[in-house]
Amino acid sequence: MKKNRTKQGYLLNTIVIVALFALFQVLTAAMGGSGSFKLVLAPCLWQCCYLIILAASLNLVLGFLGQLSLGHCGFMAIGAYTAALLSLACERAGVFEDKEGPVFLAVLIGCILAAGLLAALVGLLVGIPALRLKGDYLAIITLGFGMIIVNIINNLPFCGQDGLSLGSASSSLYKNGLGFGSKGKVSYLWVALLVTLLCLVMMFMFIRSKYGRAIRAIRDDEIAASASGINTSFYKIMTFSYSAFFAGVAGALYACANATLSTSSFAFSNGGILNSTFIVVMVVLGGMGSLTGSIVAAVIMFLVNYQIKNGAWVTALPAAVQGVFQYPMLVYAIVLIVVIMFRPKGIFGSYEFSLINLGRDLKAARLRKAAERAERKEAKAHA
Amino acid sequence: MPEKKLPVLETKKLGITFGGLKAVQDFNIQIYQGELVGLIGPNGAGKTTVFNMLTGVYVPTEGTVLLNGIPLNGKKTHQFVAAGVARTFQNIRLFKQMTVIENVKTAFTKDIQYNMLDATFRTPKFWKAEKEMTEKAMDLLAICHLEDKADVIAANLPYGQQRKLEIARALATNMKVLLLDEPAAGMNPTETAELLACINTIRDRFGVAILLIEHDMALVMNVCERIQVIDYGQTIASGLPEEIANNPKVIAAYLGE
User: Fold this and answer.
1) Is A220 in contact with B89 (Cβ distance < 8 A)?
2) Residue A224 to residue B131, Cβ atoms within 8 A
3) In-domain check, residue A363
């Protein structure tokens, strides 16, 4: 009976997703030509897509496995450069000429997959030594690895210090390779959405299986986990590598959405949105151990970032506040502090949003609230 | 005659040194199938250290642990479990944020056959394995009278039930020897009686060997067939419960001379 409910849930999700996707296609067909969609909404959606994948994949390591990793952007950089270089190589070899047709699509999918696989491989190599450590030490070593990866890319002759824009590879990813200009961003938006969706499905399936149970057990009590027959180092390294795979995929999407690649955008000291700590903030904000929470938090943080940089209302604020907005990291910190004060476990905690259980969960939440209120009332009456 | 059979669990001259401190020395024990052996001793005698060596948490500095005659030297904890040694902990170690049934299911992990692709694509193999596992897990919960708590978060269980859940989780590893580290600690008499019934059910149904550390002497004298006493890391007596109860060395160790 329970299994049936799970399957019904899958069915419901599939129906809703297909419906949303169809609606999206209709909308793009209708508004795809308009300037604001092409220049604002589509790039924003691309950005949201890779941020969602990044946050959710880091949640596997941080929220479910319980290990603090600060080098997630390193894997993203690997993915971005792999995808960009591979697509450039394909173009030079004459596999595709303009960014249209099934051949280009195949190259695009191939590049995204290759980006993920290479990142996963590096994740494996980094994970084997790094995951012998725990807690703060692991955080430091992953931070170091993230920096090392970025530096290595910097010094590779075919990547170039100044990124792909000035390096040997190409003048601009928009002209060559898989970068999409504003038109391409609209016509290939469905690829980004589909890839994001597939990544999320893969992560959910991973969490809701013996693998998910094993890594949550490791998070809760590592000694007890190994005393229950779980090979803790195997599961830790596997999860780390699996998470790096998705970071690589996110990197490939990033490469698609940008005209140039530069390692400074993946560097730890980078104050922008692509920063390993920023992704950690997203995970904590959404709730460690909730993939749906990460999705919501990624979108929220993207909106915060976008608004303080581009929002029209910013100019109306006093100069002092605008001064703070010059330093986005400061704003993220404030957002994080506020959320932690009111919801210490993040917005979602470890709750997963699900369509089929929505009614039941809402009812349970209402009952809990009522019980809390009654309790408080009783306590007051006592006093 | 049980003595003629091969013991399920046997240690030979097991010992461990921490720095200059000899925590346990020359520890020999044989446990046969279906037997319930008690390991007692005053606080700090080294009982839990013995358990940690029997499960691969500590690496003994000398001696060997044999399971069905096969030495387990150099193996890691999860390999000890795979070989058939399961344990509970003195200070309860549950997977606190997971539900009761998930706690038990986690211990089945090593025996589940499906792989990553089965899990990602939700193949029939996946559903079959998960279904079988849920049934087995409910079965084990029923033994420990926890079946109606299956979907409760483990941290929210009362103390006595947490202890029982730990035993249920250990049972799920499909073990040959079960090591129970003070299962009755902090329990009231009713809970202890329930625990006793639970232990007896386990012996009857699974025919496993059990090694029990316990401070509740009434419980130990009641259920154990043999008792081994250690003090300052050394075995000072072993034998039948009544022999132990009258052994002057044991009385001296517990009460002082």
Assistant:
1) no
2) no
3) no
Identify the architecture of domain B2-255 in CATH.
3-Layer(aba) Sandwich (3.40)
First to last CA, chain B: 38
- What distance in Å separates residue A221's CA from the closest CA in chain B? 6
Does A1 fall in a domain?
no
Q: Are B227 and B246 in contact (CB under 8 A)?
A: no
Residue A199 falls inside a structural domain = yes
In a domain, A307, yes or no: no
Q: What is the pLDDT of residues B111-155, one digit of tens each?
A: 888 889 899 899 999 999 999 999 999 999 998 889 999 999 999
Interface test with A, best of B76, B77, B103 (most A CBs within 10 A): B77
Low-confidence ranges of chain A (pLDDT < 50): 1, 165-171
Environment class of A157 (CB within 10 Å of its CB; exposed 0-12, middle 13-18, buried 19+): exposed
Domain around A255: 43-268
Q: Which tens digits make up the pLDDT trace of A302-354?
A: 998 888 888 778 888 888 888 888 777 788 888 888 988 998 888 888 888 88
Residues B200, B223 contacting (CB under 8 angstroms): yes
Asked if A223 and B126 come within 8 Å (Cβ–Cβ), the reply is no
Domain count, chain A: 1
Q: Do A227 and B122 touch (CB under 8 A)?
A: no
**Structure pTM?**
0.90
Contact between B181 and B48 under an 8 Å Cβ cutoff? The reply is yes
User: How far is the alpha carbon of B137 from chain A, nearest alpha carbon, in Å?
Assistant: 14
Among candidates A213, A227, A229 on the partner chain, residue whose Cβ is nearest the Cβ of B105? A213
Helix, coil or strand: residue B117: helix
Nearest Cα of chain B lies from the Cα of A380 at a distance, in angstroms, of 26
Q: Give, for B179, the enclosing helix (H) or strand (E).
A: strand B177-181
The structure tokens listed for B4 are: 């003629």
Is A209's CB within 8 Å of B110's CB? Answer: no
- ipTM given for this complex: 0.90
Q: Measured between CA atoms, how close is B230 to chain A, in angstroms?
A: 24
Instruction: Give ∠ CA B77-B82-B84 in degrees, rounded to 5.
Output: 95
